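ok posting inputs for the copper (II) ion job
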Amino acid sequence: MRSLVLLLLLLASPHVAAQASARPCPSGAALTASVPAPSHTMHGTSMPGTSMPGTSMPGTSMPDEATSSSVVEVDSARREIRIVAGPFRIAPMAHEPNDMMSMDTPVLRVAWPATGWVNGYSVQLCDGDAAVGTALAHGMVHHVGLANYSRRELLYPMVERLMAAGKETPRVSLPGNVGVPLTRGDTLGLYSAFHDVGGRTVERAYVIVTLPWIPAGQANPIVVMPFFADANCVIGGTSAWDLKPGRSQRVSEFTMPLGGSLLALGGHVHDYARSVRLEDADNGKMLVELHTKLTQDGHLISLGKRVFGFHEEGLPLVAGHRYRIVAVYYNPTGHTLRQGGMASMAGAFVPDDVAEWPRLDPTSIDVQRDIASVGSHDMVQ
Ligand SMILES: [Cu+2]
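and the output
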C-alpha cells in the first residue's frame, strides 16, 4: 500500500462530526444516468474518465473492464467535488480462505475540474440496481484511492498517491484551514478494489468519492502535501519483502529534497511488525517511533500514529538532510514468510516553499513503470 495513512490522522477529531452528514446514495437509475457509458478518449472536465486496459495487472482486473467510467460533479453550494464511478461487479472470488485477495478495478482517469484545495476524502458504495438509494456494506470496499498523475511523490520518482481509504479508514478529514492544492486540469486516477460480503454478488455497484473543497480565491489555507516513505520502496512492484524467521530489521534512507515540517505521521505494516520509526541518518537520533498492537500470536491489530499539531509545532525536516526508516519485525513462525514484510510511513507535510516540490518527469522509466502499476500494488495487505 502506498498512502492509506496519508492524512488519515484526524479521524477522531471534531472535524469528522462537522461533515458527517454524508448524502444518501442516489437511486440506481440516477447513478446510471449520471455516469455515461465509457468512451476511449478524454475530453473536457465534464466528460467521463475511461478505464485504461493495460494499466491493470493481468488477472487482477475484472473481465468487463471497459464497462465502467466516471464523472466529476462540482457542488459549489456544499463545497464538495464528487467523483462517481461505476458500474462495478462485485462477486465472490474463488481463492483460498485467509488469502487477502480482492477484486481490483481498472484505473479510471479523472480530469480535475477546479483550482483550489481539498481537505478531506470519503467513500460511499451504492447499489446501482436498487430502485431507491441503497448503500452497500462498507466492508465491500477493500480500498479506494486517488493517484495524481500531475504531481510527483516527495521522495520517489512516482506519481503522487493523493488520498486513499479502506475498510478501516472510510473517511479522511483535515481541519478547515489546511488543504492539499489541486489545479484545474490535473489528471487523477481512481483505483479501487472490492470484496464480496457474505457471498453476495452485486451486479452494478457505484463508488462515490466526496472531496470537501476550498475554491481558489475564497481562502488561503495552509498547504499540506502527502508524505510517504517506504522501508522497501520498489517502483512499479510490490514493496513487500520475504520475512525471515525471528527478529529482523528493514532499513532505507532518503534525502529530503526540500525543507518543511511533518504535521502528522502514521504508517502501514503487516502481521508480526513490532515498530516502524523515522531517524536522523546522520546522528541516529530517533524522531518518531510508531508501535504496533498485536494479538498474542502476532497478528496486527493496529499501528500507532503521531500528530504533531497543525500549527508551528510540526516536526522539522531539513532540505538535503539524510533520514531513514527502520522497520522491526519478529516472525515467530519458524519459517520465512513470502512477502510477509511491509512497512511505510505516511502523513501530512507542510513544505517551506511548495514551488520547490520535485517535478514529475513523465519521460523517466521509473515514473512510467509506476504509472503502469497504479492500483495494482497500492494498499495491498
Ligand atoms: Cu501492505
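notes: Residues 365-373 form the longest helix (9 residues). Residues 225 and 349 are 5 Å apart (CA to CA).
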